[in-house]
Amino acid sequence: MSAVLEGRAEGPTLRQRLAARGIDGATLLVLPCVALILGLFIYPFLYGLMLSFEPKDGSLFGNYARFFSDPFLYGTIFKTLRLAFPVTLLNLLIAIPIAFRVRLMRRQRLLTTLLVLPITLGTVLVAEGMLFYFGPQGWFNRALMAVGLLSTPISVLNGYWGVFISLVLTGFPFTFLLTLSYVTGIDPSLENAAATLGAGPAARFREVFLPLLIPGLAITFCLSFVQAYSVLPSAVLVGDPANATRVISIAAYQAAFEEYDYSMASAIAMIMGAVQLLVVVAVLGCRSLFYRGPAAGAKG
User: Fold this and answer.
1) Which CATH number fits domain 59-287: 1.20.5.440, 1.10.238.10, 1.20.1260.10, 1.10.3720.10?
2) Which of 98, 201, 225, 291 is the least crowded, having the fewest Cβ atoms under 10 Å away?
């Protein structure tokens, strides 16, 4: 009897108190992931943010004032947007009908593998392949000249369209995989019910699929946009890095490794991240203007 009273007086153990607050052995397994995120993402971001406020001239906002007072620097924001927005929209518009078609095929895995193959090549290898294919003596010009459509070779490289094509080739597989996952996640019985009620293909897409796809398409757009906005190798290899395709990542690279001004490079990187964040917030905010109910038709 005295032992029971002593146990009650001592109260719950430390393990019991931690478990009552949701901290147990399974929770501790998250700690390595948290440490990895802190070491690889949070700390570099905070270090770069602090470094951006340490310009060579000694002023607090000297780097940001220099960036936004120089048209050659702040113009890189709009040049990058001119590439990232059209590429992201085109990839999304192409991925949606292909995803709807692939979901009905028997050999879905084989076709999906072929469509996502460019993602395994990498940006540099795709750019090098474009140099041989679209070059003056490449297959593209030779084929057009052989059928009489061209008399002299043309070049789509070393400019805006070269980088545009490269971003489409490397960004489409990523956009397609995300879109396919959302399309195949919609319960087919919803489409069958709409067809039974007399809805045609266009009406079924507009009234059934599109409202359920909007949240997923918004996420896909954001991820694809961030990927396209960070373009660097193709802007140099198949673009015009001194003028038409001098994107913001090139400005950061030149500040860091040509001018050896790491503080300025950090400020450009912070501006680059802020622009991406603004676009992502705007897209996710517009998502609420569409379907806001539960996606009850999604499978599993």
Assistant:
1) 1.10.3720.10
2) 201
How do residues 127-142 score in pLDDT, each as one tens digit? 888 888 888 788 888 8
As given in the structure block, the two tokens for residue 170 are 């490397």
Cα(254)–Cα(251) distance, rounded to whole angstroms? 5
pLDDT single digits (tens) 154-182: 888 888 999 999 999 999 999 999 999 89
